[in-house]
Amino acid sequence: MLNSTGNSSKAFLEHKNDGIEWKTICPSCGLQEKIQTSPLVMDTSKVGDRYMVNVGIDYWIVSEKMAYLMEKWKITGYELREVIHSGKKPAQPVFQIIPTNVLPSWSSEMEHYYFITEPEERCQTCNIRGRIDYPYHYNKSDIEQNPIQDINIMKELKSNGSWAYRSVFLSERFRDLFALLEKF
Ligand SMILES: [Zn+2]
């Protein structure tokens, strides 16, 4: 699972709210999901010399050099979408990764946990808010029918405490290629 590309706050960027709609998915706790209706809008100058950056939890963007490498490495399971620049400094060409391979449903044997000290955080209606999913568990037969790609997105929603989103998973091959990069 792709969680983070660094520990500093600079590793995460924010996007503007243009083209973002919030859809309420649980009438009980009011949990919402972000729906993207147009290209991502953000200050692209903040990407700097990085390869891949998380934007607003839900999205991953890559710089031009990373887009080039992904094509060279024949990375599968994604499309790139242009990102719209909004900011005072000059724009930098960056692209949003649109994962195209949706993973199968979790195995029914997968474990879920809940913070016992914060029972009010758990929502019995959606069973998403307050739920911790780990480790991820898929049935072998489901994966054989729907082979993983280098980039994959989870079918289920999980909560980050504020809203619901889908995790992105990378293949081992892609991870190993990343490791070859001097600076990430
Ligand atoms: Zn709920």
Word description of this protein:
The chain has 184 residues and is an alpha+beta fold. The chain has one domain (9-179). The protein is built from 3 helices and 15 strands. The chain has helices spanning 64-72, 140-145, 172-180, and strands spanning 12-13, 20-24, 32-36, 41-42, 52-55, 59-63, 78-82, 84-85, 94-99, 112-114, 131-133, 151-153, 158-159, 164-165, 168-170. Strands 1-5-6-9-7 form a 5-stranded mixed sheet. A two-stranded antiparallel sheet has the order 2-3. β2 and β3 form a beta hairpin. The structure holds zinc ion.
List keywords for this structure.
184 residues, alpha+beta, two-stranded antiparallel ribbon, 3 helices, 13% helix, globular, binds zinc ion
pLDDT below 50 for ≥5 consecutive residues: which ranges?
none
Strand tally is 15
Give the neighbour order of strands across the main sheet. 1-5-6-9-7
Question: Mean pLDDT score, rounded?
Answer: 92
Bound ligands, named by name, code or SMILES:
zinc ion
Structural class: alpha+beta
Helix percent reads: 10-25%
Count of individual helical segments? 3
Number of domains: 1
Give Rg in angstroms. Answer: 17 Å
Instruction: Tell me the overall shape.
Output: globular
Note the gap between the termini.
Answer: 17 Å
Major sheet description:
5 strands, mixed
Strand content: 25-35%
